[in-house]
Amino acid sequence: MVIGAAARVAIGGCRKLVSSHTSLLLVSSQCRQMSMDAQSVSEKLRSSGLLRTQGLIGGKWLDSYDNKTIKVNNPATGEIIADVACMGTKETNDAIASSYEAFTSWSRLTAGERSKVLRRWYDLLIAHKEELGQLITLEQGKPLKEAIGEVAYGASFIEYYAEEAKRVYGDIIPPNLSDRRLLVLKQPVGVVGAITPWNFPLAMITRKVGPALASGCTVVVKPSELTPLTALAAAELALQAGVPPGALNVVMGNAPEIGDALLTSPQVRKITFTGSTAVGKKLMAAAAPTVKKVSLELGGNAPSIVFDDADLDVAVKGTLAAKFRNSGQTCVCANRVLVQDGIYDKFAEAFSEAVQKLEVGDGFRDGTTQGPLINDAAVQKVETFVQDAVSKGAKIIIGGKRHSLGMTFYEPTVIRDVSDNMIMSKEEIFGPVAPLIRFKTEEDAIRIANDTIAGLAAYIFTNSVQRSWRVFEALEYGLVGVNEGLISTEVAPFGGVKQSGLGREGSKYGMDEYLEIKYVCLGDMNRH
Ligand code: SIN
């Protein structure tokens, strides 16, 4: 099964190990000399023990069995940051075996014991907030402040599930016959395969591993090959916190092989994935022969709907946050900005002014609010969407091309007069481009917003309480922000409807994804 073809699960080629895994890399012909900032950050990370380049299997840091490696680069500069183990089928099978073995003891700990380990992991993540943030900026490109924000967000899932571990309650059901007692137990699913994306190198891992470990499951994580370093650093801190050998494994490298091993193994009882809808569908199909539980957090096509009665400032700020977080590279980013006739021109002007003030640059530079896109394929996709829109009559207000900084930087862009025959109104842009679409009535807005196979996040801006209720009830989406553009939090359920996915992450609902329900009927209770 090929799981690596889609945009958000990119696979690099493995190569033979040329130098020690822990050594920082020398610069290849296509890559620039490492900048001083990045170099000093890397050196600090190395001396703190957080720059890990081997996989974690059964509590041991290991090279790939054939010594192949994969390069991790800094998207802002093209510099190679590190050479990490490029693992495949054999390593994944060993990781699954160690997870399977660890499950027996980890699941038998009391919830309180597991909770303490998770709490220690949370404390360590927070204690190393700066270094983890630097790693995220280095391999993913987002501005350092945003990256440190991701560490706090990511760690919050570990803290939340450390607490939630103690609240996995069962039930006692009034019996149907007087000599019976009926119980419901909730028990961990077993070994979990977690496949995670590059856009949140930490938070998409902790949002899965937190509830998995809390409920008593053990996990094999496959982070994106583009951003494995944060995952490995987080795993190092998990070991320091007392997560026992095998309870958490990390393998990365050959995505199709790792995916196949996780999907075909009868010992893996659950697959959890964040990534593209195309890959999610393949995973779902491949999980069918062994009937695994599946959670999928897939692509979105989020509308941000600005009504005539909205507060202009609130709508501009909210849409800006919803669109340009992580340079537009989140599944909940506003993908279509629907603006009502009466406020369209005013909004277009105020919004473009705000977008103009965004600062594009290297994430380590003070003041940067927009980092690079993850790779050139991402920029090419944005370019194709913009060309398509312009060729069909849309007009660029600002931006619309690669940034003069080069590499994978793209100008924050606002395009007006976008209509439903343009690719960007149908597909996820995953970049810093905001298309403005005009609508007349509330009914039109709801129809346009729901006219998509996706259904993850939506945003509405209005000062009418009645309208907000009518619209959020009618929207076919898993998350809705009302007068708010940043709505993700560990305490609320995150997930989509329609082809945006299955299941929920975060909150008390996220725990159920890792639990099986067992019904027990105690018979013959009246016998003395
Ligand atoms: C995602 O883009 O997949 C996650 C975004 C979030 O957690 O807010």
Can I get a quick summary?
The chain is of the alpha/beta class and 528 residues long. The protein is 38% helix and 19% strand.
Write a structural description.
This protein folds into 2 domains: about 50-300 and about 505-515, Aldehyde Dehydrogenase, Chain A, domain 1 (3-Layer(aba) Sandwich), CATH 3.40.605.10; about 300-490, Aldehyde Dehydrogenase, Chain A, domain 2. About 40% of the residues lie in helices and about 20% in strands. The protein contains 16 helices and 21 strands. Strands 15-16-17-14-13-18-19 form a 7-stranded mixed β-sheet, with helices on both faces. It is globular. The relative contact order is 0.13. It binds succinic acid. Succinic acid binds near residues 200, 274 and 331. It comes from Arabidopsis thaliana x Arabidopsis arenosa.
